[in-house]
């Protein structure tokens, strides 16, 4: 997949389309100024309506985890994402100049537009427009009542992230540590907290199906994580009795 970004925005469908067209236009202008080709005319985006708060929470977790999955920092540690804004004083500590304190000429030069710029937007001399200018931190802090709730969801909501990635057609592969966490969570939720040693052969077959269907693990990954021969795992996955 080409370079891309994920945004959660508030507005009507028409507002979102206008925002995308404007963003595409501004990016193309910047690319041309830097001596590069503009974005292609068929540069596309996918607009998904958020129906309720539970879906909104899943979308937030997906967007915040995305830089982490791409190796761009620790949880909430990627400068160009919004993860470091929540339950944090870093935005205030970074300083910057309010757009309302800039002259009209300075704003036109910096933002390369004569459109009205909100006075509360803050510009950093090295980082540019800071995300706390347009990110609603109060929404996230309401949906996740404490820093621990947000951080736990970010590092342990394996199923949410995988299902969202699959729906968007993005590739995702769990690490060994994550697979171990998935197995432990599944034991707690689906098998009454029993250990792998306490599971019957039939239970391990059900576990194999869960890991395959809900998390997309391969037969090799499953065999290593629940201590079964890969051939046995494949037999379980093809068995009609367990479906």
Write out key terms for the chains shown.
single chain; 243 residues; 3 strands; Arc Repressor Mutant, subunit A; mainly alpha; 51% helix
What features would you describe in this structure?
By secondary structure, the chain is an all-alpha fold. It folds into three domains: 1-47, no CATH class; 51-155 and 164-172, no CATH class; 173-238, Arc Repressor Mutant, subunit A (Orthogonal Bundle), CATH 1.10.10. The protein is built from eleven helices and three strands; from the N terminus they run H-H-H-E-H-E-E-H-H-H-H-H-H-H. Strands 1-2-3 form a three-stranded antiparallel beta sheet, with no helix packed on it. The chain is elongated, with a radius of gyration of 23 Å.
Summed up:
The chain is mostly helical.
Summing up helix and strand content along with how strands pair, one would put the structural category as mainly alpha
Fraction in helix: 40-55%
Q: How large is the radius of gyration?
A: 23 Å
Largest beta-sheet details: 3 strands, antiparallel
């Amino acid at each position: 997949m080409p370079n891309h970004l994920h945004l959660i925005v508030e507005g009507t469908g028409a507002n979102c389309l206008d925002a995308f067209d404007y963003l595409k236009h501004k990016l193309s202008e910047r690319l041309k100024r830097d001596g590069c080709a503009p974005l292609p005319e068929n540069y596309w985006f996918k607009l998904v309506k958020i129906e309720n708060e539970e879906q909104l929470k899943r979308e937030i977790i997906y967007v915040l985890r995305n830089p982490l999955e791409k190796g761009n920092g620790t949880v909430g540690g990627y400068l160009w994402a919004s993860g470091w804004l929540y339950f944090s004083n870093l935005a205030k500590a970074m300083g910057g100049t309010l757009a309302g304190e800039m002259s009209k000429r300075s704003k036109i030069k910096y933002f390369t537009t004569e459109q009205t710029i909100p006075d509360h937007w803050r510009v950093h001399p090295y980082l540019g427009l800071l995300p706390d200018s347009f990110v609603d931190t109060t929404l996230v802090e309401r949906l996740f009542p404490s820093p621990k709730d947000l951080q736990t969801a970010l590092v342990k909501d394996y199923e949410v992230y995988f299902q969202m990635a699959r729906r968007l057609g993005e590739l995702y592969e769990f690490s060994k540590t994550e697979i171990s966490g998935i197995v432990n969570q599944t034991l707690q939720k689906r098998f009454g907290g029993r250990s792998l040693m306490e599971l019957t052969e039939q239970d391990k077959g059900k576990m194999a199906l869960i890991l395959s269907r809900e998390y997309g693990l391969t037969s090799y990954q499953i065999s290593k994580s629940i201590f079964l021969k890969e051939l046995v795992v494949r037999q379980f996955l093809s068995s009609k009795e367990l479906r």
